[in-house]
TrEMBL record:
The lineage of its organism: Bacteria, Pseudomonadati, Bacteroidota, Flavobacteriia, Flavobacteriales. It comes from the Bacteria. GO terms for molecular function: iron-sulfur cluster binding. Gene3D superfamilies: 3.10.20.30. This is 2Fe-2S ferredoxin-type domain-containing protein. Residues 32-94 form the 2Fe-2S ferredoxin-type domain.
Amino acid sequence: MKNNINFTVIENGTLIPITTRHGSYPNLMYLLKEELQLESFGECGGVGRCATCVVKTSGITGNSALKERNEPATLSKLGFEEANIRLSCQIYITTDLNDVEISILEV
């Protein structure tokens, strides 16, 4: 469908195609947690403090590429300074995710 958002998630070396719609979840963390049944993922509920939802993105654009709120400080505490390392709870489900590759990192 025209309004679908399609991207690929890599978890433990497995490529998982995801199709969703704008606003279908509050953020990427909730989508990943529900769709992939991830345990111990997103423990703080999406406020950007626990860093249990760290992902590596490839190809993300637009406003979704910007780090805001608690995200830079939380990632810095763990030694992540790269622009493509993100907290999935801080990424909204928008067309910015079309054709993006998202790798779930173990922290």
